[in-house]
Amino acid sequence: MATKQTKKSAPKAKKVAAKTAAKYGYFDDAKKEYVLTTPATPIKWCNYVGTLNFGGIVDTTGGTLICKGDPALNRITKYIAQMPCSDFKASTIYIRVKNAKGYTVFSPFVVPTLTKMKKWECHVGLSYMRWIAECEGLRTQVTIFVPTGSNTLLQDIQVTNLDKASKEVDIIPVYEFSHFEAEKQLTNADWVPQTMTLKGHWEKDGHVVLEQYAYMKRDFAVNYVTANCKVGSFDGDRRVFLGANEMGSWAAPLSLANKELSNSECDRGDNIAALMIHAGKIAAGKTFRTCTQLGQEQSLKVASKAIAKYRDLKNVDKAFDELAKFWEKYLSTIQVQTPDAAFNSMVNVHNPRQCHTTKNWSRYLSLYQLGYGTSRGIGYRDSSQDLMGVMSHMPEEALELALNLLSVQRPEGNAMHQYAPLALAEDNGNEANAGDSREKKGVLDENGNPAYADWYGDDHLWIVLTIANYLKETGNMDLLKKEVPFYEAGKKRAQREKGTVLEHLKRSLNFTRTHLGKHGLPLLGFADWNDCMNLPLGAESSFNTGLYAKALLEMMDICEALGDTKSVEMYKGWYEDVKKAFNDCAWDGKWWVRWFDKQGNAYGTNKAKYGKIYCNSQSWSVISGIATGDRAVMGMDSLNKLLNTANGVKSSTPGYRGFDPNVGGISTYPPGAKENGGIFLHTNPWVMIAETILGRGDKAFQYYSQINPAAKNTKLDEFESEPYCYPQNILGDEHKQFGMGRNAWLSGTSSWTYQAATQFIIGVRASFKGLIINPCIPSKWDGFKVTRKFRGATYEIEVKNPKHVCKGVAEMIVDGKKIDADVAPIFTKGVHKVVVTLG
Ligand code: GLC
């Protein structure tokens, strides 16, 4: 592997990389797909189908991890992410071809039979996966997706005979079930298998429905698998299907040597759903098509409607078309045409698509964040930020989640760190948790008081930005009057204290205003955004300072829109106070420090041995306007000099070189990894935004391009991660594997890079007065075009850059009329032409 080479052998490694350019796949922009041409990706790659309500992960070799409503509490399939790529993981399809001696068996996903294919493609699409595999003279096309709004995973299988002679073919799709409580499946091998149950229900016409549940769910939630056609037989017991007391394997199940499966039900044990579908003799050039369904409903009776619907292949086609229409509409909210193809492809398709994924799954379910146990869930800070990435596209869906977040805010104003969606829906009085802070519970300081906070200093502040975003996008100010409960553990929602949305926001700001440290900066709490720096209570955070100041600016905007000048003045006072405190204590000479511990020692200072400079204190002080003039520029320039690499901006440098209990989590990583001097990607868009505020479009765009995963498609032996979505982190240059990406899909990088690109580089953003158009672009661009839907109207915007500047609106013409500012009016309908000239 190129990245493991020593310095001496590096040139050789480079040659190898060049020869193997784009060897894993390519972007098909017209179809909005990434097409893999080999299953042997450097690490597991995946895609998402459906939503959190029903859906999950489909990997590129046919493994599926499906949940309904909550990955921890209602898991359906048993996908063990740590298994090697080549192993069966919860689902596959076997294709069986009759020959003179018996049968040849292969899987169109390659896994688990590991058959060599003549041709193999996996199309990573917008909420669907499609494989095209050629093997044994057959062309198999499989499409997996969840129809919009349904509780069903469809698997549309089409087998075409490419040979001249007819072939006798069987299709055997298989799913393996998980206990609904995902963690129990792994930790309890007594209760779980005793309760896992699978039954086969034959219908008169030869169809079968396999019903599966853990016994206690029999009357409430059952899983089912069925096909649109008759089946010859089935197996529900893994031991029977694999054969010889499981000496048979997933790669070669012994039962496939027999014409029929055993119709095994499973009264306890490992539940699977294997169907024997006899396609019969497929004539030369002909196609056999079947569609399987995996679903969950309260009962089979309730499921019968969906079962009947998707047994009709016309409805399967219709559902697939509807999914495409959903995406067409979603993506049409913002479409750009710039001179940079990789930027266009990311901004028009893959980035907004990833935002839809993070909106659904927060940090709950990925191949890295495995969704076991309820100590994770929907993260307060994470989802507050994710929502800003979908706010222009689906504000009402975003609001629904934002209201859930507000409902786990404490009456004091700070917030619970996470909530479990199913527990929230059940109103069980215990739906939220305080996050990792519990790990330090019971640790006392020198006076016998708790040494660590049980709250995070940033969580509650993010939601102010999110709600402001919603209000600006929709203009629905009535939301502020809506009553939402606060979180009081142990009480049912109806018994909890309530407050209006406006009151919730006020309490957020008030909490921070009343939790300032000795320099007058907001307290860190257990941690700020960087949840790996855990200093004892009393520590102050520059990041929380920037976020608090930005939240105050947003609140001033809201109060102004409400005509409440008194509150505007009050929050302005708070803003000036914290700005002054920050400027009085946090300047280190060339950059802003990152934290002060309770004794007043600075972190992120040139005097320190490790962690001399941190990225976030530079970017957030600019974003919030508390850094101005030379210091703002100098902080960003120091960041550029000390933290930037060809693969992105590092979060700090140099990394700690061993575990230091005084700083906590950050030092559990080797230098160059994750928060400890790694390129923690989430921080990079903040750098882009800060640069656009300083008017430096060339720099902002460089920061954008150097982390663009699409641009890494020819460097995948180094990057390793999916090129069609942002990973959470890339190893930094202190690490031997510099450039390697990990933790794909669920990262705040998605929302923020999308905001940076669309609202700050392209420069089109919603405000209470209208649509602001104030780009900050590379000076070499002649201009660009963008279509933006806003409050019911469509804005067709053309930006011209005759003088090749980065920023500065010289003229704005809306529907032929000159406008005096950089804000296009609110129209509520129609198509409107906007021409902006920079200069
Ligand atoms: C992870 C956490 C997120 C945190 C970030 C930085 O992504 O999910 O909440 O802000 O790490 O530490």
What does this structure look like?
Helices cover 28% and strands 25% of the residues. It contains 20 helices and 42 strands. Strands 1-2-8-9-10-11-18-15-14-13 form a ten-stranded antiparallel sheet. A hairpin with a 2-residue loop joins strand 37 (783-790) and strand 38 (793-800). Helix 9 (395-406) packs antiparallel against helix 11 and helix 15 (615-623) packs antiparallel against helix 16. The protein is globular. The chain starts with 9 loop residues before the first helix and ends with a strand. Alpha-D-glucopyranose binds next to helix 8.
Question: How are the SSEs ordered, and which strands pair?
Answer:
Elements: H1 10-19, E1 25-28, E2 33-36, E3 46-51, E4 54-59, E5 64-67, E6 91-98, E7 103-106, E8 119-125, E9 128-135, E10 138-145, E11 152-161, E12 167-176, H2 182-187, H3 191-195, E13 196-202, E14 208-214, E15 222-227, E16 233-237, H4 238-242, E17 271-282, E18 287-297, H5 300-311, H6 313-331, E19 334-337, H7 341-361, E20 378-379, H8 380-388, H9 395-406, E21 418-419, H10 421-426, E22 432-433, H11 459-474, E23 483-485, E24 498-500, H12 501-513, E25 540-541, H13 542-561, H14 565-585, E26 595-596, E27 602-603, E28 613-614, H15 615-623, H16 629-643, E29 644-645, E30 648-649, E31 652-653, E32 679-680, H17 684-693, H18 697-706, H19 716-719, E33 727-730, E34 741-744, H20 748-761, E35 764-766, E36 771-773, E37 783-790, E38 793-800, E39 809-814, E40 817-819, E41 823-824, E42 831-838
Parallel strand pairs: 38-42
Antiparallel strand pairs: 1-2, 2-8, 3-4, 4-5, 6-7, 6-12, 8-9, 9-10, 10-11, 11-18, 12-17, 13-14, 14-15, 15-18, 16-17, 19-37, 20-21, 21-22, 23-24, 25-26, 26-27, 28-31, 29-30, 32-33, 33-34, 35-36, 36-41, 37-38, 39-40, 39-42
Bound molecules: alpha-D-glucopyranose.
The site of alpha-D-glucopyranose (GLC) has 10 residues, from helix 8.
